[in-house]
Structure prediction request, 994 residues.
Amino acid sequence: HIIWICDLKTCRPNNADLVLPSRAPRKHVLPFIEGMNGVPHRGKVLTVDNMNPNVKRVEYAVRGPIVQRAVQIEKELKEGVKKPFTEVIKANIGDAHAMGQKPITFLRQVLALCSYPELLNDNKFPEDAKNRAQRILQACGGHSIGAYSASQGIECIRQDVSRYIEKRDGGIPSNPDNIFLSAGASDAITTMLKLQVSGEGRNRTGVMIPIPQYPLYSAALADLGGIQINYYLDEDRCWALDVTELRRAVTAARQHCNPRVLCIINPGNPTGQVQSRQCIEDVIRFAKEEHLFLMADEVYQDNVYAEGCKFHSFKKVLFEMGPEYSSTVEMASFHSTSKCYMGECGFRGGYMEVINLDPEVKAQLIKLVSVRLCPPVTGQALLDLVVNPPQPDEPSYTTFIKERTAVLAALAEKARLTEEVFNTVPGIRCNPVQGAMYTFPCITLPQKAISQAKEKGLAPDMFYCMKLLEEMGICLVPGSGFGQREGTHHFRMTILPPTEKLKIMLDKIREFHQKFTQEFS
Amino acid sequence: DRHGAAAGLTQGWHLSHTTRQNIRNSELAPLGMRAWQIKDELRQGARKPYKELIDVSSADPHRAGVKPLSFVRQVLAVCYYPQLAKSDKLPADVRQRAQRLLGTCAGGSAGSYCPAGGIPEIIDIVCEFISRRDDGVPSYPENIFITSGAQRAFVEILNILVNTLRSPITGVLTPCPSYPPGNMAVVMLGGAVVPYYLDEEQGWELKIDELHRALESAKGVCDPTVLYVINPGNPTGHVQSRKSIEEVIRFASEKRLFLMVDEVYQDSVFEQESRFVSYKKVLAEMGPPLSHTVEMASFHSVSKGFIGECGLRGGYVELVNVDPSVMRNLYTLMSRDASTTTGQLALDLMINPPQPGDPSYPLTAITLHISDLRVLEVLNSLPGISCQPVKGGGYALPRLHLPPGAIQKAKEVGMLPDYFYCSRLLEETELCVGAGSENGQRESTYHIRYRQSSDEVLRRLTSFHIQFMKDFS
Prediction:
């Protein structure tokens, strides 16, 4: 037997399936004994061949290989390695605070008070913040945010969420029993998909997702062994959702699976389109006709920038379509504290509201969420503040509104700027960023580049983005990570860096694109 | 057909007797919910035998009234609202720690996403902690994942292990009594729970013979691949000896089982003779080939121990000897959903507390009451109730020797006998304890489960118990 003692710095996994220059961080194990020809002399209990095969199919581009390479480059920069740039701009992930956006004062004051209630005696904190904190603490076990909460979430916070939804939707009633607090929207989305994926063979659950999509959906479906049904958004019409396309997708899918779920992201990620009210009505009608469960991912509901665009909640539209729809269409809508003006990704606050869910299924849902015990209580507390912000007659109101408006205005301006700059670059075509936090421009790549990418076993836009990272220190996510029409290429860039840095970034990408086009002509 | 998906989930639940019991119980009349109700009734002025509800059914210390550690909460407050660092009101070490922790967060904010796998600086501290705890056995950052609570990591690793596309399905040897969410996770993922019974008469020891028996019982039913161990035991309070741990490791190696070791109560060991020793340390000290081959995941959390911050959701898993390709897949799985930054910060505070010389030293730890030994003496002196010595963990798990009359009455009202006992106890004394059937127990044995606590708990329990035994004899 050959004994290979692992050198911690250079240890490489033995498998030759590394396609990209760098994948996951190198995993170090206690020194292992290896037989001749590289075959472990004692087979592992857990191998890629006997593990859950669904896991192999899971990918999540937002934190995928390109990001791992970016982290590596940052390390190299720190170690003094010379590069054509001095920092890596990570425009891959929708993390506002990481890009310098400031938290909202009121939210953080209340969280501090909840964390260390002795501060309630400190007169530097405004009364409304103290009242909110006291109310939240009263609702916690032992009056502490460190106690487990009920799995569905703290009851008075669910009530507050209901009130928020009613206010937002012009008075349409919301029942707190239909509210499930969650660790970010991702947690709730994954839970609902888990609940719905079942069946064998041709009867296996199919889930319709937009292309391009936020890759949480494809990852969850891969993990659950659900069937992914792609419906394409129309790039030429600003990523519009077309019911004809929905119908095409579901009809084709019925040949090989059992379509049961339709996922909508509004405002869209990565595409940023904001659905018109008419479109939402059409989708609801379609869902009813095709007997589909609607999942409405509305985490960007406050991030609407374009003139003439407005956020319409699926629930509101559903109920305004009358009882024929509102009492039959089954739906879950999702919201979160990670986006909008708060950008508090790290707190993992979120909720879903379920509509017309079969009572037996709801009972199963309640059981299912109890397996993960409870959502982080600090996230629940934060959500409570988001749905219950300072009112005009309260001391924190002025500052709160000022901060909120500033954040949203900055995002709107950056959305406009991004579209403007990208559309000056020959070979980059950028749709208006109507909402959310991203731009997803279409890039024209020379045939030579496409061929070279294929030789390396890379998607062409991955090849492009890798080069951009190595040469300019800008980290984007290739469109292939989100899905796109065959033969088209894109990248997703966040509009979150501060305006000055964003301008620099846009200029660098313009420069890079021109260079790239020339290099591969 | 609408029920299809849910039916699939329901079918999954019915795979094991133990789990069926668990679910049935939770569907009956949740004691916890009734306890909340009574609390409300008392608040509204209802007249009851006692003025205050005591809920010791869960090992959640804060819910039971234990105060959080000031240092932890002060640091978190400053992390959330850094303006607090400007004043001198908070100790210097609090402000310094908060500054250091914020420096590890992207954009200097506790509101940004954590990197996949966890904040690297905190992972390094976890490695140092583990190594220190294990007298120098090295720990590598790439084998650590920080998650929102140990449960999250537990589920994700089970997710990799449980292969539902194979036949027979994956089996997981689990202790009985056990930690219900652990069993629920197995079933939820489509695995089979294979119970091995802990030996009550021997202080809830884990007997290798019983592991063999359990493995045998799985033949033809499922394919056991995982051995799930909880040490210190939950809810049993048993602390495994080094010898016992070695036996389990040898068994796992022999039978080719992946070890999943829940060690969240490692800081809750208080019997003089018992000492916690980690599975990793024992494995390392057993030397090759075992130390190089036995595959293992061990879990820790901020929910228990001396900080008891269940609601903050912080924990980690350390993998040992796992195939590198599998690790890559695990990394992708873990990257899909960020864990809460608060939990990671709390983890740092737990494993790296103030040292002698720091202003906040010493922390007033959440101590376990030594009077609990007296509690056990008292209980053991009463007819119809007995209790094994509690060496650690979060609970006492006394056994009820119920008279046939009580069992009969329970059947009549459609409750499991220990559940019936707990329900009566709650209504008559406003003391809420857990029913042993939630955790699983040998057929026809009954237990109650309560967080070790005060004289008042003992008083109410004793007076109720004596009366109950009289009523049903």
